[in-house]
Design a protein that fits this description.
This protein is of the alpha+beta class. About 35% of the residues lie in helices and about 30% in strands. The chain has three helices and nine strands; from the N terminus they run ββαβαββαββββ. The protein is elongated and about 80 Å long.
Length: about 150
């Protein structure tokens, strides 16, 4: 019997998959526990619609991520920091500060955990990378000045 899984079932499949199981297993275990439904025409059309909706959602998120990446790709983000006499910063420039500056300069919302940058503890220009959704990345520069 073919069934569409409503939830992940260990050693059988993941949610939304179409699997072939024995009649007894489906009637006595999967259906009573509401883990699956019979793969009739209505269930198959619902499965197809869900797959298309997920594909569309991923495409729109990827397009938005590419647009955001184009806004910051190759640009320079200027950060103002205080330093001691020898040019060494008090503390360091963090990804949180960089994300906040990108938000104000380019109106692009970035999570601080998605910004890859080495420790910045002095003045100068440093390269950084932002990882956006679905494998889209953008490289940019961070300029630290007084």
């Amino acid at each position: 019997m073919k069934v569409v899984l409503k939830q992940d079932v260990k050693s059988l499949g993941k949610k939304g998959e179409l699997v072939n199981v024995s009649d007894g297993y489906a009637r006595n275990f999967l259906f009573p526990k509401n883990l699956a439904m019979e793969a009739n025409a209505q269930a198959m059309s619902e499965l197809k619609n869900k797959e298309q909706a997920e594909k569309y959602r991923i495409e729109t998120e990827t397009a938005a991520a590419k647009a955001d990446a184009d806004k910051i790709e190759g640009k320079t983000v200027k950060i103002v920091a205080k330093a001691g006499q020898n040019g060494k910063l008090f503390g360091s420039v963090t990804a949180k500060e960089i994300a906040a500056q990108i938000k104000t300069d380019f109106n692009v919302e970035l999570d601080k955990r998605k910004i890859d940058v080495n420790d910045i503890k002095s003045f100068g220009t440093f390269s950084a990378t932002a990882r956006l959704n679905h494998g889209v990345t953008a490289s940019f520069f961070v300029q630290v000045c007084e």
